[in-house]
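Form 7-S
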Amino acid sequence: MSYPYGQPGYGGQPQPYGQQPYGQQPGYPPQPGYPQPGYPQQPGYPQQPMQPQGYPQQPGMPQPQGFPQNPQQIPNPQQFGNAPRPGGAQPSGGGGAAITAGILAIVIALLGIGSIIYTLHAMSVAQEALDSLNSTLDSMSSKYGTSVSSHRDFDSGGYYFGVVVEAIVAVLFLLGGSMLLNHKNGGRILLVILAGFGVVGGLIGMIIGLASGVPAAAGFSIPGLLVVIAILVLCLSASARRYCNVAPAQAPQINYAQPQYPPRF
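Output:
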């Protein structure tokens, strides 16, 4: 039996034969690709796909620079201990050779300053003794009428020149040792030059002492010669060169990223 005005009870309009109505018939699932009746897709809001774990960047929302897109990509602060340093410089491995050379140079400088003070004091005592001797000779000459010459001068020019040279060397050793301890390559080069001159001077002093028949003078120069040789070898080592090419360690700055959340509609 046919119903010319649609099926009874549904109030539908009559449809031509062979054509489907706009709404889906009861009992049939909705066709894929077509919106459900009564729920049209809202224009301007594209459907969001399934969000993977980690909340990636949403369309239309630019990712701020300096923050990883995935919170799981936040770097571990403990990994920075083995990271390469800026400028390609590698860790110095302790720098024991450079530190030892710097300390020896400072010790030599302090010993040189002490020697200068002792030399000046000895020169002052010698000058006082000479003045006392001249005064005694003058009194004897006036009392007994002797013709003993009392004009005996103390030639201190050579001693003062030696004191000035020793002071310059001590200051240079102190400067080179301080610079080397502060990772300055100029301090290492300065100590190499000073130690080279020290080795040459020590050998010359030993030769002169042995040639003059005073072996004790040559024996006293041996400890100083060994120290400057040690400084020269330590400053020329590869460890000292690496130590001077590395800047003091600084704490790395870590930018912690804030987790992103999906937009709410």
